[in-house]
């Protein structure tokens, strides 16, 4: 089922999500809904708080690496439950980053090039991987949502000041 998005200004986006203790039918439905919604909206990733749910689950659509022109490699949505991120690389990459909950805002965010992530899938199976490039960026972006952090919290304060008007408009239009 397609879910309605929550937008900048909605307090749920600033709350820390709860650990998922058991993969219930409700959690499976939420995972399926996130996959359907991110595909329908042609997004890179989508987290539970972006659809009004406070569970530690998100989906992303980027594979490791990048194409010959430096763009992400799109793959079917992958579900991450209770992700644990560790061992960020020393090498950092700054790149433009958007967010479906903050439409029209695309700002440069600096993040580690690689990150290690442990997570559970919808069947309860544990996975561990080293994510790179766009996949790493998407994982870190969506994981931030689970902790009430938005990508605009990671931009330079001068840039944030310059987009305050646009943020007010988003808050007014969508909430």
UniProtKB/TrEMBL annotation:
| GO MF annotations in UniProt | metal ion binding; peptide deformylase activity
Swiss-Prot/TrEMBL catalytic activity: N-terminal N-formyl-L-methionyl-[peptide] + H2O = N-terminal L-methionyl-[peptide] + formate
Q: Spell out the catalytic residues.
A: 142
Question: What keywords tag this UniProt record?
Answer: Hydrolase, Iron, Metal-binding, Protein biosynthesis
Q: Which family does it belong to?
A: Belongs to the polypeptide deformylase family.
Q: Does the keyword Iron apply?
A: yes
Q: What name is this protein filed under?
A: Peptide deformylase
Binding of Fe cation occurs at 99, 141, 145
Q: Which cofactor does it need?
A: Fe(2+)
Q: Which gene encodes it?
A: def
EC number of the protein: 3.5.1.88
Question: What's this chain's function?
Answer: Removes the formyl group from the N-terminal Met of newly synthesized proteins. Requires at least a dipeptide for an efficient rate of reaction. N-terminal L-methionine is a prerequisite for activity but the enzyme has broad specificity at other positions.
Q: Name one Pfam family in it.
A: Pep_deformylase
């Amino acid at each position: 089922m397609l879910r309605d998005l929550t937008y900048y200004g909605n307090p749920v986006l600033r709350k820390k999500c709860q650990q998922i203790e058991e993969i219930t039918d409700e959690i499976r439905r939420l995972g399926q809904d996130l996959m359907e919604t991110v595909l329908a909206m042609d997004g890179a990733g989508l987290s539970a708080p972006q659809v009004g749910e406070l569970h530690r689950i998100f989906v992303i659509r980027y594979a490791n690496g990048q194409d010959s022109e430096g763009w992400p490699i799109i793959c079917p949505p992958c579900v991450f439950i209770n992700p644990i991120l560790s061992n960020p690389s020393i090498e950092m990459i700054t790149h433009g980053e958007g967010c479906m909950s903050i439409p029209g805002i695309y700002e440069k965010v600096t993040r580690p090039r690689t990150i290690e992530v442990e997570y559970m899938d919808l069947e309860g199976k544990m996975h561990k991987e080293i994510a790179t490039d766009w996949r790493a960026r998407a994982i870190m972006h969506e994981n931030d949502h689970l902790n009430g952090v938005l990508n605009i919290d990671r931009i330079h304060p001068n840039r944030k000041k310059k987009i305050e008007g646009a943020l007010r408009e988003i808050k007014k239009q969508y909430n």
